[in-house]
Amino acid sequence: MSDEVFRAVARELGDGFPPENVLYPVNARLRASYPDGLTIADIIDVFLDDSAVGVRTALTSRLRQWDAESVETWVGSTVPQSPERRARIYDLLGLPVDAHAEMDAHFPREGGPVVIAAQQPWDPWYTSERRREHDFYWRAYKRVLADKNWDETTIGKLDIATTEVVHRLADPTRPEPYQSKGLVVGYVQSGKTANFSGVVAKAIDAGYRLVIVLTGTIEILRSQTQRRLDMELVGRQNISAGVDDDYANDEDWRNRNFLEHEIDPNKTNEIPAIRRLTTSTFDYKSLLAGLSALHFETVDQSLPLNDPKNLYPSNIRIAVVKKNVSSLKKLVADLKKVPTELDQIPALIIDDEADQASVNTIDPKKMKTEQIERTAINGQIAEILGLLKRAQYIGYTATPFANVFVDPEDSVNVFPSDFIVSLERPGPYMGGADFHDLDDLEDDDKTPANSNQKAYVRDLRAECDEDRSAEQLRALDSFVLTGAIKLFRESKGARPYRHHTMLVHESVKQTEHDAVANDFKALWKSAGYSQAKSLSRLEKLWAEDFAVVSAARGSELANPSSFGVLEEFIGAAYDRISEGTSPVIVVNGAAEKDYNQDSLDFQERGVWKILVGGTKLSRGFTVEGLTITYYTRRTGQADTLMQMGRWFGFRPGYRDLVRLFIGRTVGGPAGADYDMYKAFEAIVRDEQEFRNELTRFSGVNEKGEPWVTPRDVPPMVFQQLPWLRPTARNKMFNADLVYRGMGGESFSFTMQPPRGDGSINARHFDAVAPLLKSLGEIGSFNFVDKDDVSRSFTARYGIVPAHVVLAAVDRFEWANGWDFGPHREALSTAIESGLLEDFAVLLPYPKSREPIEIKGWHEKLPIVNRKRQEREYRTGFTGTAVRERDAIEHIAGSPKKNGGPLAGALHRKTRGALILVFANDPASRQLKRAQAGPVDSRDFATLFSYALPHAAEPLGRIGFRVRQSGTGAIVDAN
Questions:
Q1: What local confidence, expressed as pLDDT, does residue 288 receive?
Q2: Around Cβ 207, how many Cβ atoms within 10 Å?
Q3: Alpha helix positions (H), 276-349
Q4: How confident is the model at residue 641 (pLDDT cuts 50, 70, 90)?
Q5: Under a CB-based contact definition with an 8 Å cutoff, are residues 830 and 952 in contact?
Q6: Percent of the chain, pLDDT > 90?
Q7: Rounded Cα–Cα distance for residues 222 and 277 (Å)
Q8: How far is residue 82's CA from residue 937's CA, in Å, rounded to a whole number?
Q9: Are 587 and 600 in contact (CB under 8 A)?
């Protein structure tokens, strides 16, 4: 096909328009050159032609938008991101059914954010037409992202995610006020600021005229957020129109790196300008004589501000305020004096790190009066919401547990009663799962190529001061060495590494920060980096660690062929880190002046330093260029611990150099030791399961009703470690889960009590004896591994009546804090209703390990290694048969899984499937592998996963008993 055809087709794929038959308008454009016209087969050939780059780019972008669309009438009854939606799109484009499969292969569905939402009391308003009419600030923000080298796909996904949020807010021109409250759940250090910046851009385009961004509780974070918004959204013209010159000494301002709008909003009536109520150097102050800054302009004073005639010409006010009682009280006081009627002002409140300080932590059961008592900051936020009837509240967090436990009946609280949006994990992001091996590799099989732990994690197990100093020196050596490798890469054409940092986080106490900083300062002086004596030590570290990992994980990057090539850059790295008064910066203190340190101004100049701190560097604040982390602090809350994971984030050009030095024997109460790496792994798994639950129950059922609403979410929060609560006790007041059934999907039941004397293990083995006696067949089943390669495994199997399986699992004992009841309720209900008659029970046999003789049992059985949580909090295992679940889900009728021909043959409409696994669990944890036998049944645990028949719960169902307003009713989320 010619370029003329390509251009004609691409023009019919315009941004923001619905899918329509493409053949007729294309032929109209090509009438002169192609009088006989193209056929629909020709159009499909153009879509699939790799040389038609413009067409493929445009079609990919449009399909992404159309797949996600949720408000336009053309979608009919189809659900976003579904196969039915894609088929609908093809039909509207005029593509025949026989072309759909090939189109899907070339343009696969990309997925999108997961949404849990209540039904909204209005018709859709944020339509594509509305978006096209007002998009000045969104287009400007997209241009900024493109200049930062964001690719079209990433920007497109942000477009979809931000639209998903904005269309769930109330229409700012709506006659009746409505407060929509929502929560956006991201990942730690994963770009949540980019998302809420996009939401703000779209919201002010849509008509919101007062924007309040609540940051964390420290000035360093507020200032960082203010600058980011100023640089990427507010823009030079809007900043220059004000009276403040807070960026006079800013390197990016002087180099004109701040956004410059294509049209100066201050010189036209067509585009609203933005007026800043705060600056990068000053939090919110009482306006006093300048109160007119909050007086909104109107064209027709006979109409309210929210009328479109007044709203769109009116300028925007934006305030970035930290969650400080004094600052918020000043804002509240000024709002009460605003000349404009407050109930006419469409306002948007963005609460960054929404689980910190914003939540009301007064237990409702302890309230003595009808007046709800509130923590100080929550009280100020509640007052702002009470004043601004048109205010929309959106919380942003990576650790949502505190927010979803808020009392949903408290109408002025911050419970996300209207929506929860769970963002996708960004492609290049390096998060919790990237530091752990969640597929349970055997230790002996781990290499830097297949094990995240081997590649990026280094244990801290010091038992004396000498060992501790040696571990600190290795971390410090790693910091210097990675700095040298970055400079080497720069010499080979890599983009400059402006920042290179190391974080030391051992305590929350300021006095201990000083001691740790002094340790590292002394170590820096004695390490000898400016002398030849350090080279042999660094060469050994490079050869044993960084050269190996970079070869496995960073082969596409420039890497030195030998240590000799790297030597010249070690001195340069040492010099960069030594610049200034000290290579170490302490970041703490009760006074804000302690954080306004020139040496920690990531914006003003490059920072190559070792940062020692605690809370001030553990939430929200982005540590730029973080490469080496030395972490040994313990905490008892999962959300607090996750927020300390500053090593999560984007690591362009140095992902292979990242190292986490983490305490494996950190002291705790009563002399107990805690493994912080295992603690992080547990919360990574809990978080993953929570997100999986949101995914399973997002969307609507066949009646068009939500499967679950935000108030149903709290019971979905899981907890593996008994000492590590999801959030603080004073934030957990609501929620009981009473029913959980998901047809065709497996669930692993690994939450077993501590081993103790092994008697529980023995009782569990005795419980499954009737199941084992029924496994009379041997066969081969299939599964797809993490590389999408189909593999097989051998298992003994048999068919067992469902009531026998129920009797067996009823004998199992579970860890404190975990309830098998909701699963049992689904199991027994399916049996009683005749939807579950029997189970196919599988016992996989590992290829690399022979079965072992069991004391008191008539045959040998396979025993595998599974990780049990260590020491006194050993309350369960990390998984059962992860890879083999494809087979039982296929047997149970899942349309998405293929367990091979035998699995297909075993499928029955009323048949579930179960996998048994026996895991080595000796009294001494030093015995990593099961002995040759005979083995006592006390020394291995019985684990299982099962899947209910798909036909029993094809859509999934969970039931809740929520604690609200004294009721005890079960909310059935079907």
A1: 63
A2: 21
A3: 308-311, 325-335
A4: low
A5: yes
A6: 52
A7: 13
A8: 47
A9: yes
SS3 753: coil
Given a contact cutoff of 8 angstroms between Cβ atoms, the answer to whether 427 and 191 are in contact is: no
pLDDT at res. 356: 60
Phi, psi of 103 (to 5 degrees): -65, -40
The pLDDT tens digits for 738-790 are: 667 788 988 888 888 888 899 999 999 999 999 999 999 999 999 987 777 88
What the block records as the tokens of 791 is 């593999």
- As a whole number of angstroms, the distance between CA 854 and CA 269 comes to 84
DSSP characters for 775-844?
--EEEEEEEE-TTS-EEEEEEEEEEEEHHHHHHHHTT----TT---HHHHHHHHHHHHTTS--EEEEEEE
Q: How many CB atoms lie within 10 A of CB 788?
A: 6
pLDDT in tens, 713-748: 654 554 444 444 444 444 444 445 666 778 898 888
Q: The sheet that has 347-352: what strands, in order across it?
A: 114-117, 419-422, 181-185, 391-397, 347-352, 210-215, 316-322, 274-276
What letter would DSSP give residue 448? T
pLDDT (tens digit, 9 = 90+) per residue, 544-585? 999 999 999 987 889 999 999 999 999 999 999 998 888 998
Residue range 163-173, pLDDT digits in tens:
999 999 999 99
Q: Which of 401-405, 419-423, 598-602, 837-841 has the highest mean pLDDT?
A: 837-841
Q: What DSSP letter does each residue of 210-260 carry, written as one string?
A: EEEEEE-SSHHHHHHHHHHHIIIII-HHHHHTSS--TTTT-HHHHTT-S--
- Strand ranges in 287-437 using DSSP code E only, listed in sequence order: 316-322, 347-352, 391-397, 419-422, 429-430
Q: Report d(CA 488, CA 564) in Å as an integer.
A: 12
Angle at which helix 192-206 crosses helix 152-166, to 10 degrees, equals 60
Looking up tokens 């973080």, which residue turns up? 626
Start-to-end CA span in the chain (Å): 51
636 exposure class (CB count in 10 Å sphere: 0-12, 13-18, 19+): middle
CA nearest 972: which of 835, 822, 831?
A: 822
Please answer whether residues 607 and 624 qualify as being in contact, where contact means their C-beta atoms are separated by less than 8 angstroms.
yes
Q: What is the pLDDT of residue 849?
A: 81
pLDDT at position 445: 79
In this structure, the chain runs to a length of 974
Task: Quote the longest CA-to-CA distance of the chain.
Answer: 91
Please report, as a single letter, which amino acid is at residue 754. P
Contact 27, 94 (CB under 8 A): no
**Helix segments in 319-445, DSSP class H:** 325-335, 376-387, 401-404
The overall average pLDDT reported for the chain is 84
Helix (H) or strand (E) run with residue 482 in it? helix 465-491
Measure the CA–CA gap between 311 and 314, rounded to whole angstroms: 5
